[in-house]
Amino acid sequence: MLYYQILDKHEAELPAIIFHEERLSYGQLRDKVQSWAAFLQEQGLKRGERVGLFSKNCANFVVAYFAIIKAGGIVVPFNYQLAMPEVAYIVKDASISKMIVAAPLPLEEALADSGYPGTLHQYVFADLDAGKKEAYREPSLTENDCCTIIYTSGTTGKPKGAMLSHRNLLTNAEDFTKVVTMRKGYKCLCVLPMYHCFAWTTSVTGSLFTGECIIVQDNYTLGQAVDLIDKYQINDFFGVPTMMQMFLDDAPVERLKSLQFFISGGAPLPHKLGKDFLAKFGKPVQEGYGLSEAAPVVTVNPPTKIKAGSIGPAIPNVLTEIRNKEDQPVKTGVVGELCVQGPNVMLGYLNNPEATAETLRGGWLHTGDMAYKDEEGFIFLVDRLKDMIIAAGENVYPREIEEILYQHPAVKEVAVIGVPDKLRGQAVAAYVVLKPGAVATKPELRKFLRGKLANYKLPKYFMFLEQMPKTQTGKILKKALRERSIADLVGPIGK
């Protein structure tokens, strides 16, 4: 099966997408996708050509995504928050000559500065609706052909384009929905940005695979999310920990009763948040885990058994191993690098054979995440390999410290990083956001941790912030904190 063929599985009259006042049935969605695909073919789109997609969440985003693939192309979704030089970098790296955009992008200067050699044609959604079309021609594709290229966030260096095949996307959605209770006729609220692999596989592909209706939210606010859940009696919610915290703080229980489950991903779910959420709503948060290179879902807690602090066992047809520095499997309960194998694992990185070879070693996708596995196969993340702090020769895992600080009644958010230290190599620094109206001092927080952690794990520095720097999916940007830590610790030059 090819990716776009999932739209052919369901009755024409079945509701597929609701976006504001726009409603598309599966039949209408199929027709519009084919019409746009025919337009792209008329514009000269060739098999395997990469086409950019730049837009906030909307029904047309879904149409454009499927149309590019159905026309024989490869879709490259863009984070719409990127600055123009960042957009230009991806356009050049992926050799994109066509982009579908919600509104024209001022890219001329950035493309010239990047050394982009060609001409970029931008098509707004209205162009695809109104353009002259010849008859649609079915492309010659296989399930192993590249379907989309997801550019990673680029926590270090330039972002890399993870190439995902039709098979990668389809099998991941199918295997994920075997664990999560998604049903034909259910409704899913899509609040996460569609350009992000987590949202696309769960909220969009999972829904369309099973025959659900997607209710699309373009600009997330808690109030609007609650209104939509209540109005449409939403069954499925996929979000990130910050959204779960918002529900916990301010969402009325009675307006969320239609929800069958809450799935959290994108960032670690604090233990306390999960516990408090269950106490308020009577329904647990099922934490999962994934990465773009795995299309993205690797694990999720099943509804029948949820372990606090765990990202769950692997979904069907996905294998996981915990491996040591010598790339050998370790025993149950021993911390090592989480590695993944399965039909969801990417083809490789575009134009980057070195990074591909480093990440795909010995038949396994090396995630860079430190974890351990219990006797039942449930996986517990310890931390990112690159986030691990080495202080005076001792390994310090930031998440361990963060989980304890989250238990302090004044703490709303926390992020722990390593900062340069002449004596110890690295020192532990904690960035903290306090709850509104709450007060806490550095000595108080240090005292709270003392006795709960070994002394070498205690933060040397505490810095208070009004808010954390985050990605749009709610992940705290530790890279940004590391960059500002120098100024925070040293202070302005001359002082």
C-alpha geometry: globular
Query: Judging by the overall fold, what is the CATH architecture of one domain?
Result: 2-Layer Sandwich
* Named CATH topology of one domain: GMP Synthetase, Chain A, domain 3
Strand order of the largest sheet: 2-1-10-9-11-12-13-14
Sheet-strand content, in percent, reads: 25-35%
Structural commentary:
This protein has an 8-stranded mixed β-sheet with strand order 2-1-10-9-11-12-13-14, with helices on both faces. Strands 15, 16, 18, 19 and 20 form a 5-stranded antiparallel β-sheet that branches. The protein has a domain of 103 residues: GMP Synthetase, Chain A, domain 3. Strand 13 and strand 14 form a beta hairpin. With 495 residues, the protein is of the alpha/beta class. The chain contains 14 helices and 25 strands. Helix 1 crosses helix 2, helix 3 crosses helix 4 and helix 9 packs across helix 10.
SSE order and pairing:
Layout: E1 15-19, E2 22-25, H1 26-42, E3 50-54, H2 59-70, E4 74-77, H3 84-93, E5 98-101, H4 108-114, E6 121-124, H5 125-130, E7 146-151, E8 161-165, H6 166-179, E9 187-190, H7 197-210, E10 213-216, H8 222-232, E11 236-239, H9 241-250, E12 261-264, H10 271-281, E13 285-290, E14 297-300, E15 319-323, E16 336-341, E17 348-349, H11 353-359, E18 360-361, E19 364-373, E20 379-384, E21 389-391, E22 394-396, H12 398-405, E23 411-421, E24 425-434, H13 442-449, E25 461-464, H14 478-490
Parallel strand pairs: 1-10, 3-4, 3-5, 5-6, 9-10, 9-11, 11-12, 12-13, 24-25
Antiparallel strand pairs: 1-2, 7-8, 8-17, 13-14, 15-16, 16-19, 18-19, 19-20, 21-22, 23-24
